[in-house]
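tl;dr need the bound structure. longer version: we got a ligand (guanosine-5'-triphosphate) that a collaborator sent over and nobodys looked at where it sits. i said id run it. heres the input, straight from their email, havent touched it
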Amino acid sequence: MQQKNESFKSGFISIIGRPNVGKSTFLNQVVGQKIAIMSDKPQTTRNKVQGVVTTDDSQLVFIDTPGIHKPKHKLGDFMMKTAKNTLKEVDAIMFMVNADEPIGRGDRFIMEMIENTETPVFLVINKIDLVHPDELFKIITSYTSEYDFAETVPISAKNGNNVDRLLKTLKTYLLKGPKYYPDDQVTDHPERFIISELIREKVLNVTREEIPHSIAVVIEKIGREEGRDMVNVNATIVVERDSQKGIVIGKRGALLKDIGTKARHDIEMLLGSKVFLELWVKVQKDWRNKPGQLKEFGFREDEY
Ligand SMILES: Nc1nc2c(ncn2[C@@H]2O[C@H](COP(=O)(O)OP(=O)(O)OP(=O)(O)O)[C@@H](O)[C@H]2O)c(=O)[nH]1
């Protein structure tokens, strides 16, 4: 979907922290009524989207990365790797700690996990309403002496204190990007929308200027394979002309393969499981001028 605002920024932020530090309270505080929780997502998903904050010029998508909150839990290599990969690929990591408790084993476990990651890590000291301001410096130092954080922001998720500043600072770490979710989160299956945007983005990246924005991506099917940690995605890339179909497919299918590999990678990150992606290319002349088809392709009037 083309953005009206050319400088629109968006990105994914992983929230990590020991149990009870206030992650849910924070999400409730920031998403308010505009909550876009993927409550209908299958529980097997590992990287859960927990909330989306949309403003006029940005969209922050907060995701949870289970597997790193429970140091006692014996994680398989695969889980550990998946969690680490997620942390590498998000735009920022919010490491939330409790101002009211001393740094502990759980915090150190997480800090080890994020060691050497190039993703900017925010130290978010929550529950500052519970401590005397004079103590804050000492608390902050106990963490910053062990890890080089990109930013340190003390907040109270409960009463909202300094939360605005945190959001503003997070925004400065985002790059230009699409609006993954509609403002009011209307669709039943928002992952369909994100997946189609991810594929569309890859088509545009790979084909550069040759394909104008006259393509749409329709997700035909998303299904989890029974008994296997694998999601099947069937999608159709709709173009307007035969010549565009040739461009998207490329010599001996090379370009389509490249689009598929790149998109699959991103979708795997989004869903937290292995993905089998099947892509088709279809010519649908003049699809942009047919209102019925616009709707079918997921376009809403106010966005077009
Ligand atoms: N005083 C105070 N209490 C807070 C604050 N943020 C969260 N809490 C309280 O801390 C407790 C845990 O908060 P949650 O938001 O459930 O914590 P969580 O990190 O989501 O917990 P898990 O789901 O177990 O990981 C609740 O009783 C909250 O009311 C805060 O800023 N100040």
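gonna send this back to them w/ a short note. The longest helix spans residues 190-207.
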